[in-house]
Design a protein that fits this description.
Layout lengths: L2 H12 L13 E5 L2 E4 L4 E4 L12 H13 L9 H11 L8 E5 L2 H16 L3 E5 L8 H5 L14 E4 L16 H18 L4 E7 L12 H13 L3 E5 L24 E4 L10 E5 L1 H10 L10 H16 L2 H22 L3 E7 L2 E6 L10 H13 L2 E2 L1 E3 L5 E4 L7 H17 L2
Parallel strand pairs: 3-13, 5-6, 5-7, 7-8, 8-9
Antiparallel strand pairs: 1-2, 2-3, 4-10, 9-10, 11-12, 12-15, 14-15
Helix pairs in contact: 2-9, 3-9, 4-8, 6-7, 10-12, 11-12
The structure holds pyridoxal-5'-phosphate.
Pyridoxal-5'-phosphate (PLP) binds next to helix 4.
Length: 427
Amino acid sequence: MGNEQLVERRHRALGPAYSHFYREPLYIVRGEGVWLYDDDGRRYLDCYNNVPSVGHCRPEVIDALSRQAATLNTHTRYLHHAIIEYAEMLTATLPDNLSVCTLVCTGTEANDLAYRIARAVTGNDGAICTHGAYHGNSTLVSELSPGFTRKRRKPDFVADVRPPDVYRGPYGAEDPDYIDKYANLVDGAIEELADAGHKPGMMIIDSIYDAAGVHTPPPEYQQLVHEKVRAAGALVVCDEVQAGLTRMGDHWWGFMDSGVVPDIVTMGKPIGAGHPLAVVVTTPEIAAEFARESGYFNTFGGNPVSAAVGKTVLEIVEQDNLLDNVRSSGDYLRAGLRRLAHKHALIGDIRGKGLFLAVDLVRDRLTKEPAADEAAEIVESMREAGVLVALIGERRNAVKFRPPLIFATEHADIALAALDQALEKHQ
Ligand SMILES: Cc1ncc(COP(=O)(O)O)c(C=O)c1O
């Protein structure tokens, strides 16, 4: 059967809310390492997917998953060593006081639970999120995801602030007070909530502001924001679903780059390497306070198979020194992108860190007019050249590189050559 028929059947069976990448959607049937294979056996370099963190179909993960699935899969109401070992291993990668884990299945669930915890602990129901953010798809969390799902009016218990976007935001890096000015936006959000009769219970921060176009925050900004949020009686939640697990190249988790310690950390996607695993980590004090209000049970979250997978992923990250790999491959890729910026005027800005980079395309470097159509063409051309990337940002004009963490410099060379060629074509 041709792909057109599959597209049609998919549309009928799954409905129009589902989208797909590429004008002609790819039918991927196999993955291995950083490579994906389509139904014709054509191989593509995966520069986009972060979920297969340790590589597509990593044999050790498959082995751990299959062995545990063949032995036992239950839930957290029985004792099992694997979930405890996993929680201990995971919290060993975090600052000391972040030591209590709740295991769930998706990033959405993790952020939803973070809100419940924050509300229970602070007694406040307001939430601050950032402009353009995406934190998940439940009824509540989609309200905290203004960039994607909010076509309806914003509920009055939510306030958005602009993230520190020094390229297109209201304050550029040349402004000596830009850090304070971005941080002060949080005061405005607190006031907005107060005007609507709400006090803030939490502020949720994606440590790399991915959906807003990838912005690495200055540490002082994060520090100021944490202070302001806590002074208003709220908790700080760092969403590490995208930025975590060494992705940014300097620490296990993105917030650590800023020297801050949030009250709650949420994790997902890469920690399960393709298996639905997500975690909420908090302090013993906050966990105890939440438990006074509510118990917690999740049928699938924290089952022995998930725990076996999660442990194996952490072991691989350690054994393969993926933090070092992310730093060196990321620096290499970034340097290559900078060289391309000298050659191609379409490149307006290169943002991000480690193996999480965005190339902002503009029609004019002075006006910064977003080159969204060109960006879309470039993504298509790169796919034709066998390299998979996607678009990011509110204007859909930035090309996003966020490959598996095992991505090496030889892969970066392939990606850079494909981008170079695509930029030539679409200049
Ligand atoms: C930063 C961030 N948080 C949360 C989520 C939601 O995770 P999930 O799709 O597993 O519910 C996503 C998903 O893209 C995300 O990018």
